[in-house]
Amino acid sequence: MADTELQPVVDAIFEPDTCTWQYIVSDPATKDAVIIDSVLDYNPTTNTISNANAEKLLALISDRGYNIVAILETHAHADHLTAARYLQQALIRRGKPLAPICIGARITSVQHTFAAKYGVNPHEYDGVFDRLLPDGSTISIGNITCRILHLPGHTPDHVGYLIGSNVFVGDSLFQPDVGSARCDFPGGDARALFHSITTKLYSLPDDVRIYVGHDYPPGGPDDGRTEPRAWATVAEQRRTNKHVRDGVEEEQFIAWRKERDSSLAEPRLIHQSLQFNIRGGQLPEASEHGHRFFHLPLKISDDVWNWGFAPQG
Fold first, then answer.
1. Beta bridge pairs of residue 27
2. In the beta sheet, which residues pair with residue 159?
3. Taking Cα atoms as reference points, which of 179, 170, 162, 151 lies closest to residue 245?
4. Which of 99, 151, 216, 251 is the most exposed, having the fewest neighbouring CB atoms within 10 Å of its CB?
5. Residue 35: beta bridge partners?
6. Is 24 within 8 Å of 38 (Cβ atoms)?
7. C-alpha distances in angstroms, 207 versus 12, 42, 169, 196, 201?
8. Is the pLDDT at 183 greater than 70, yes or no?
9. Whole-angstrom Cα distance, residue 247 to residue 232?
10. Is 33:61 a contact under the CB 8 Å cutoff?
């Protein structure tokens, strides 16, 4: 990046329960800022949504004197609940102007897919995002420009945010010793992910910092680092990423990614996260008795069903 290009300040906040990196990216001159990929606390044992992490973000925003101009999502997450709506409404209650919740324009196809799976009514997800971002469009953060990059592969709607000499890539690429994201969700595509990484991210200048959406440090004295790390440069990723470094061929990556994905368990909060996040961080509609529900699909083998749970009638 040119030395004359305006550079933001990046506050990186790690949420340890879901291993999620959250970012507040600001223009130091104007204090205008955006929030990227925030987390709302959820306990699947008690089915409790809480706001401890979100309140930490709000405290940081207040302490720094930031003016939040947008709340950005890289995609519809399958491993945590977004705090986007909570943060938006909390800021309004504190007298701040509405910060639009923004996501890639292809989110609508993802919403339709998972709404059908979980029985979500269209009026609960239609128009819930304030702004759908086309590829190559921009957002102003004070005097700094944020450019939207379409990064399909992990999900079809996935986008990254290029801000100065920093790119926030969500769940497309992880730290070099962790590798790349899974591609086995509906609409996921290992070939598309390879091209997102090699033709879009790796074509950026070597000194650009790639900020990841999660980090899972290998841990232990024999396995390298134990602390989460927010970024690595393009040069470092190209040289050392364990899945997608220079010299790895496309077909080699696709075969390996498919084999790896076939052995992965579902994310712990996949069903709750997707139902909440396609609604733009809004609660499910209340039942006639005032209760709100997430739907959890049952998985029962034929042997179990035929043995003791034969349908009646």
1. none
2. 150
3. 179
4. 251
5. 24, 71
6. no
7. 18, 37, 15, 18, 12
8. yes
9. 19
10. yes
Asked whether the beta carbons of 212 and 21 are under 8 A apart, the reply is: yes
The neighbour count for residue 176, using CB atoms within 10 Å, is 20
* Mean confidence (pLDDT) of the chain: 94
CB within 8 Å of 68: residues ≥ 6 apart: 33, 34, 35, 61, 87, 91, 96, 99
CB-CB contact of 107 with 136 (8 Å): no
* Residue whose entry in the numeric block shows the structure tokens 């269209």: 122
The answer to whether 88 touches 128, Cβ cutoff 8 Å, is no
- Backbone CA torsion sign across 267, 272, 273, 274: positive
Per the DSSP assignment, residues forming a β-bridge with 11 are: 24
CA distance linking residue 208 with residue 255, whole number of Å: 29
Q: Quick one: which H or E segment has residue 64?
A: helix 52-64
Q: Running DSSP on this structure, what letter comes out for residue 201? A: I
Query: pLDDT category, 313, cuts 50, 70, 90?
Result: low
Please write down the HEC assignment for all residues of 137-151: CEEEECCEEEEEEEC
Tell me the pLDDT tens digit for each residue of 129-158.
Answer: 999 999 999 999 999 999 999 999 999 999
pTM over 0.85: yes
pLDDT for 297-309, tens place per residue?
Answer: 988 877 766 655 5
DSSP states along 78-141: SSSEE-HHHHHHHHHHTTPPP--EEEETTHHHHHHHHHHHHT--GGGTTT-SSEEE-TT-EEEE
Phi, psi dihedrals of residue 170, rounded to the nearest 5°: 55, -130
Angle at 296 (CA atoms; ends 295, 297), nearest 5 degrees? 115
- List CB contacts of 157: < 8 A, sequence separation 6 or more: 75, 76, 103, 104, 105, 106, 107, 109, 110, 187
